[in-house]
Specification:
single chain, 102 residues, mainly alpha, flat
Length: 102
């Protein structure tokens, strides 16, 4: 029972992180609203995603920019995709540890 609850908590947390990364990536495609409630919601979502996902995305983005594939002229940001892969890996690792312990 404890193992099941821990596994579900790990899955839920990983899913929430991936959802925030996805929303952040989608919002980056659209211009910022200039006024009204839409602007307030936009900045709230950006602030929340930067708080939780920024510490994951920014180091990945910095590593990509320093690599031969990156640089200032890079048109596509691959850091969300790499973050998805890393979250999936860590999620699987944590779940296997929980299954081993319990």
């Amino acid at each position: 029972m404890v193992a099941f609850l821990l596994e579900e908590a790990i899955r839920l947390f990983g899913g929430a992180l991936m959802l925030l990364i996805f929303v952040r990536a989608i919002l980056s495609w659209f211009p910022e609203p200039q006024e009204g409630i839409l602007r307030d919601i936009y900045y709230l979502v950006i602030r929340v995603s930067n708080t939780f996902v920024g510490p994951i995305i920014e180091p990945i983005r910095n590593l990509i920019q320093k690599s031969p594939l990156g640089g200032p002229g890079m048109m596509i940001d691959f850091s969300p995709i790499i973050a998805f892969i890393l979250i999936q890996f860590v999620q699987g690792l944590l779940i296997s540890i929980v299954r081993t312990i319990f």
